TrEMBL record:
GO terms for molecular function: hydrolase activity. Keywords: Hydrolase. This is Cof-type HAD-IIB family hydrolase. It is an enzyme of class 3 (hydrolase). It comes from Paenibacillus haidiansis.
């Protein structure tokens, strides 16, 4: 068994474009897990929108959520580790969003807060429903005292391109600002990333990097793909992500995860 720990991104990787986990992919994961391999979901999602997939597949262990900002035990839902941010540093981003009418949310490990959540339109609510989340009203900023692990900005791709370009000119030494999808920009602690969290988990489990496999499809997956002994990019990945990976599999709509696992984990087990 060459790979003892396998990290899977969720959206655009494990799930197809209809946000579905196919039966074939789930069965392949269960088969490999039955051989003793550990699986960890490594996602930009929150725990509440990640845990159901682990439980659907009958998997224990851990999930790495919020793009590496929080790691949670699947069985106990205990926070194993989280990178909390200084909320004062977020004020300039919040002011920008308010002044420019840009939608944003504030995430603790288990909760998501939106200004005026109770009056969100159906389109915004539908977006959160896709990720199995019910947003809560953001309290007055001066009264907010929970550990914040992520701020997410949501807009159309062209608007986010412009925002990303503007923010790239700001001092960023305190934050990791990354594009986690065509329609999302995430702001996190400067040390938070999927790769950093996966490295910590592998060390905790006593598993060297060469025995770790990671599969992902977007820029926020780069750090875990380059940390793992085998980094596999989906065919629906940007060219830069494919170039950074060791291998490329089929797209998320063609069960690319299943095919990669069969190629690198199941076939070798019978040789």
């Amino acid at each position: 068994m060459k790979y003892k720990l396998i990290a899977l991104d969720v959206d655009g990787t494990l799930l197809n474009d209809n946000h579905e986990l196919t039966a074939g992919t789930a069965e392949t994961i269960k088969e490999i897990a039955g051989q003793g391999t550990e699986f960890v979901l490594c996602t930009g999602r929150a725990p509440r929108s990640s845990l159901p997939f682990m439980r659907e597949m009958g998997l224990d262990g851990y999930i790495i959520t919020h793009n590496g900002a929080a790691t949670v035990n699947v069985q106990t839902e205990e926070i194993v580790h989280e990178f909390a941010m200084d909320p004062r540093g977020l004020e300039r981003f919040i002011d920008y969003c308010r002044e420019n009418g840009v939608h944003y949310d504030i995430n603790t490990t288990f909760s998501l807060y939106v200004p005026g959540a109770s009056s969100l339109d159906e389109e915004a609510l539908d977006m959160y429903k896709l990720y199995l989340i019910v947003p809560e009203d953001l309290p007055e900023w001066s009264e907010f005292n929970e550990p914040i692990v992520k701020m997410t900005v949501t807009a159309e791709k062209e608007e986010l391109d412009r925002i990303q370009a503007e923010w790239s000119l700001w001092p960023q030494e305190d934050f990791n600002i990354l594009r986690s999808g065509d329609f999302f920009i995430d702001i996190m602690h400067k040390d938070a990333s999927k790769g950093a969290a996966l490295k910590k988990l592998a060390e905790k489990r006593g598993i060297p990097a060469e025995e770790v496999m990671a599969i992902g499809n977007y820029y926020n997956d780069l750090t875990m793909l380059t940390f793992a002994g085998l980094g596999v990019a989906m065919d629906n990945s940007p060219l830069e992500v494919k170039a950074a990976a060791n291998a490329v599999t089929a797209s998320n709509n063609e069960e690319g995860v299943k095919l990669a696992l069969q190629k690198y984990c199941l076939e070798q087990s019978v040789q």
